[in-house]
Sequence to fold (698 residues):
Amino acid sequence: MEGKLSNRAELFVNESEVENTATIDIAEGKVDQSILLELYDRLDAAVWIFDFDHKRYLWANRKTLEITDAVSLEELQSRDLGADMSPAVEQRLRQYQQDFCTSDVSFSEIWTLYPKGQPKVLQIAMSGIRLRDGRMALLCEGREHHKQQPETLRSAEALLHTSVMISLFSKEGASLYRNTASRAASVTLETPFLDQFVHAEDAKDLFEIVERERTHKFVARVKTRSGPRWHELTVRACHDAVTGQPAYLVSETDVTELHETKERAQYLASHDTLTGLSNRTYLQERLTLILHAAKRKNQSASFYLLDLDDFKLVNDSLGHAAGDTLLQMVADELKSLAGPEDVIARHGGDEFLICTLEGKKGKEPGSFGHALLRSFARPKVIEGKQRKVGLSIGYACFPQDGDTVDELMRHADLALYQAKSGASNKCVQFDAHMRQLRDEHRAIRKDLERALKEDEFILHYQPIACTRSDRVVSGEALLRWQHPERGLIGPDDFVHIAEEAGLISDIGAWVAREVAKLQTHIDGLDYAVPLTLALNVSPRQLSDTGFLGFMKSLPEQTGCAPDRISLEITESVILGDIPNARETLTTLKACGYQVVIDDFGTGYSNLAYLHNYPIDGIKIDRVFMEDINAGGEIVKLILSLATALGADVVAEGVETIEQRSWLSRNGCNRYQGYLYSRPVPLDRFLSMLETQHRLAAM
Ligand code: C2E
Ligand code: CA
Ligand code: CA
Fold:
C-alpha cells in the first residue's frame, strides 16, 4: 500500500505475525469498526490525528507510537506538544487549520520530529479532518524518509520555515505549489499567478520578459489575506520537477514598509508641505514631459510664473499664519482651475508655476493666465476680512518663446519681472525687449545701492503757493539722483526700481530726515515763516515694520515740528492694499504729522472712504487741470466734497494764469505747478523764501 489506505475488499495478512490475528469479516465491502483500527495498526505508515487547538495527539496508530517512542496511546495523548512549541511552528499549524477550513486541500511536506531528542525524518501527507464537535483537526500520514540526502532535508526544512514566499506556477499561471509563507499570504491557495496583482498591468509583459531574460525582479502591489501589500517578486523560468513541464518559480518578500517609507520620503522631497503642490524637485523632469507631449500633439505649452503682490505685507502685518493661509488658498484655487495634466508647483515663497498645454479647443496661449486674473479679482477672506489678492503673471509659450524648459522658464521669469514693475494684476507674455529692460533694471539696482552709500541723492523743492496772494505757504521735497555718469535723474526713472529692490525704506528715511532737518532750520531763521514741508511716502515704506518707530523718533532726533511736516500718500494706501493702513495713519497723526492724499482722483472717484481716515488734505492730480480748461465740473465736485470733509486742497500741475484764477474763484486756496516754479535746488528754494520775506517787510 502506497500513500493512501486501500479500500480493497480482501486483506492479505502476513503469516509470520499471525499470533493475534483476527478473522476478518467483510460484508458488502464494509469492515467492522474494531477491525479497522487493527488494520491501521498493521500499516507501515504512521497515521495520526492531531488536535490543532489543544496541541495534542487525538489518535495514533501503532507505527506512530513506534516513531514517537510512546509506551501507549494514552501516554502519547497525554503529551502537551504546546509546551515547547516554537511560535513559528504554532503559526504554521494555525495556517494549515485555516487552509483546511477554507478549501479541501492536502499538502505533502518533509518533517523532522524529535521524539526523545533523536531526529526522525518523515514524509508527511496532511489533510483536514472535521471532528464531531465541528472543529478542524489534522490528519497525518507519515513515512520514514531514509533515502533523502541531508542537503535535501535541510532545504525542505528551510522551505517550510522561511518567511520568503515561494510558489510554483504552470506556464498558464495555475498554482502548482506554495510554501507555508506563500500560503499564509495568498488570498486563496488556487489563485492564478496574474490574478494576484492589484494592477494587472504591473505584470503585463512579465512572461515575455521572463522568457527572454529567464529571470525578472520587480516590485508590485499584490492582493494578500491582509489586504494589498507591496511585494518584491523574482520570477524565474524553470521546469516542474513532477511533470517536467515549463513552469515559473516565484519568490516574494513583503517590502511594504520599505516601499511606503521610500514613497513618503519621495513625496516629502518633491512636494511643498504647506500647499501640497510640487516643489522644485523633479519639476524639470515633469516639465520636459509636458514639452514632449506638446511637440508630439502639435500643441502649444505655456509656462506661467505667478507672483502675489504685497505678500510680504500680509506676512509682516497679519502674521505668518495669515500668510500661510493665503498661500494655501491660492494653491487650492490654482488646483481647482488647472486640469489634471497640468503641472502646478510652488516655486518659491509666494511664487507659483503652472505649466499647461494650450492651443486646442479654443484655449488660446495665455488664456489660462487671464482666467486666473479673473478668478483672483474676487476678494478673499483672510482672518475674517475681505482682501483683494493682487497677482502678477508672466508667461512664455512653446514654441514661439522658446523650445527648452530652461529657456521658457527664463523667459517667463523676465515676463513676470515686467508684470511686477507696473500696476498689479497684469498678465504679460514674454517679448525679446524684456531682456534688455531687465538688464537695465539690474544695473540701476546695483547703482542705487551705491548711491545710498555715496550720498548721491538730493532733494529739490517745489513751492506751494496761495492762489490769491501768491505767497509760498509750503514746499514739496522731490527726490533727484545726482548720478556720477548719467547726470541728474528724476524719480520716475528709479523710485519703482528702488521699491522692488526693497531699497525705498532706506531712501525714504533719508528723505524724511533731510526734510525734518530743513524744517528745523527754517524755523530757526530770523525771517521765520510758518512754512509746511511736504514729502512723499511710498506705500511700501508705509508698510515697513520699522517705519513708524523711525517717524516717532524723528522730532527728537532733529528737533522738527511734525505738525509742519505733511506726508503725501497715494489713494492706494487707503483702498485696502496696505493692511492696517488706518492704524498706521492714526499713529502718524498722533505723532503730530499731517497726512495728505496725493494724486487725488486718479484711483477711485468715490470720496466717501475718506471719512474713515484721519486725513488733513488732498492734492488734486494734475490731470484735472485739463478739466478746468473744459469748465471744471469734476474739480468743482471734488472741492465741495473736500470742504464737507474739512480737508485742505492743493491743486497740482498748475501751468497757466487762467487755471490759477479759476481755482481762486472756486475756493481752492493752494496750488503747485510750473506757473509758480518748477522744483528747484534747496539754495534756490531758500532764497525764494528770503526774497518773499524781504518783499513782505517792505
Ligand atoms: P508727485 O508727488 O505727484 O510730484 C509732483 C510731480 O509733478 C513732480 O515730478 C513735479 O516735478 C511734477 N510737476 C510739478 N508741477 C508740474 C506742472 O505744472 N506740470 C507738470 N507736467 N508736472 C509738474 P517729479 O519730481 O518728477 O516726481 C515724480 C513723482 O516721483 C512724484 O509725483 C512722486 O510720486 C515721486 N517722488 C518724488 N520724490 C519722491 C520721494 O522722495 N519718495 C517717493 N516715494 N516718491 C517720490
Ligand atoms: Ca507728491
Ligand atoms: Ca502728485
